[in-house]
Design brief:
single chain; 2 domains; two-stranded antiparallel sheet
Length: 193
């Protein structure tokens, strides 16, 4: 990202990368100073990265949804010469799933991810498995499927779909860069106001 980018814009960039909506207060903690949302009585985040005089290896903290909370360590890896053929900011790498917004911070996200290993999830998968077995059997005998069986399968599918959302959105550098190119971060940097 260019060093002319402000901390407020960096907040928007992080929101894009995490697939969040920017609806909660945020703050950056750098050298015992807080920059962030007005309601946190922090300094204005409208300061350019160049004004912070960051050196390679400098680390600072980004906090979001302070009731959640989410804490990110931001580190300046290295300086690059800008490529005039590219639009900045760009995402160079990423991995894993982005936790859903409002899932209760790290603890809530981990608890929701573990929901796939609970007995309830196993029951719902067994309902689907049993339905497939019964479907094959009924087709071979010419019997029809009753409404109660269909209802039970639909309910199990709804619960499984809900749990799927708890897993977070798989990270996609291509999607993130498309959203950054469209300058979506400029909209997200002001959402909570």
């Amino acid at each position: 990202m260019p060093d002319s980018l402000t901390l407020r814009e960096l907040h928007g960039v992080i929101q894009v990368v995490m697939c969040w909506e920017g609806i909660h207060p945020f703050q950056f903690m750098l050298r015992a100073r807080r920059f962030g949302s007005l309601e946190l009585a922090a300094r204005s985040p409208d300061v350019a990265l160049s004004e912070l005089r960051l050196r390679v290896g400098t680390r600072f903290r980004y906090e979001y949804d302070l009731t959640g909370p989410w804490e990110h360590e931001v580190r300046l890896e290295r300086w690059h010469e800008a490529d005039p053929q590219r639009t900045y900011p760009i995402c160079l790498d990423g991995d894993g799933s982005c936790p859903p917004e409002d899932c209760g911070g790290v603890a809530g996200y981990l608890a929701r991810r573990e929901a796939w290993t609970t007995p309830e999830a196993g029951y719902d998968l067994a309902v689907l498995d049993g339905f497939i077995d019964q479907l094959a059997l009924k087709r071979s005998t010419g019997r029809s499927i009753d409404a109660e069986e269909i209802n039970e399968v639909q309910e199990a599918l709804e619960r499984l779909e809900g749990r799927q959302g708890w897993q977070g959105k798989p990270f996609s550098r291509k999607d993130v860069n498309a959203r950054l190119r469209s300058a979506e971060y400029l909209d997200l940097m002001h959402q909570q106001w």
